[in-house]
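HUMAN: You are asked to prepare a plain-text protein record giving the amino acid sequence and the backbone structure tokens, both parts labelled.

ASSISTANT:
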Amino acid sequence: MEPHYPAADWWTDFAQNERLCKTIAEHFGWEYITIPLETGTNTEKHPHKKSSYGLQKHPPKKSPLEPVPCFSREDLGVRNSGVRNLGSALQAAPSNPTQKVYFINTGREWVSLPHMSYGGAVTGGEDMKRLFSGLKGKPARWQVRTDRAMSEHYRNEKVTSWLPLMQDEESQLQRLPSGVRRKVKKAQKNGVVVKEGGTKLLNDFYRVYTCNLHRLGAPALSEKFVRALLSKYPDDNQHHSRLFVAYDGNRAVGAALLLGAGSSFENLLFGSLQKYNRYYTTYLLHWEMIKYAISKGAKVYSFGRSSRGSGVHRYKQQWGTHDLPLFWSYSHPVRKSIKDLKFLATFWRMLPYPLAKAIGPWFAGKVY
């Protein structure tokens, strides 16, 4: 039996996902916009005020709508440079009148989508200047996360590692490399047990997640944000959000957050206690998430993003994954990211864990 082989644009299940965009925007108090990629006459009805090209504004609940920008072609970084020319990329892409782009106003720039690997699935026949023609004011910058460069300013050191899924878990297990199957079974023999659930597992999840990030020297997103993804994002059909926590006895030793959108599932957040990795905890966590995705009829399981060639990337490759290159394109020259400053990671590891846990969400919310 062969696995499902999804369309190459499976990731757009997350990118073109208004429910996910709305959950993020509402949590942080940001506004967002919806831009239909029209290939014909737009007949969609919407209660919000529209521009002449169907752009829809969604202000934050607790603050007034701030002015929004009008981009010039120069602001958008559109240049005559082959595939990096946004207009050319759009014209070459297949048309789909139902596609939309969602952008969130973070106060510094419009981002599609912050804290996610994907957004701005610009594959219609529109020009970016035309799409943004109804926006006025500031900020006058944008950032798009997609599978190709959309301007001359971009970063592409990250990749997403993903697996096509079989129709049943036994077939999937047999398709995994023998080394991975062996480690999954060893984790089970070592007595590791994985529980799947919602907010009842949140305390255990967050303790492991924050401990792991503190060890790595990075701030963690807030517990409230995870709770929002668990309570506001899921529905009974196309949108899923579940926690998976691995236990050694009564002690939580590994944790993961799994999001589902349509027929695609992705591990968004992940962590494990290092001294328990010898029990192959991480292998059992991923396997349980793969099983859950299969039970929901998924065609894709994504391990999430990592830096190309890193240890985490090599770990994922053990599973026989495919790589999706990620391009984060900008309307402006890219400055060095705070994530690239190694000394900050060293400093963060030196902070007492309780302090890092307390102040981490403020910093993590700014670095999206």
Summary: The chain has two domains: 12-155, 160-323. The domain at 160-323 is CATH 3.40.630.30 (Aminopeptidase).
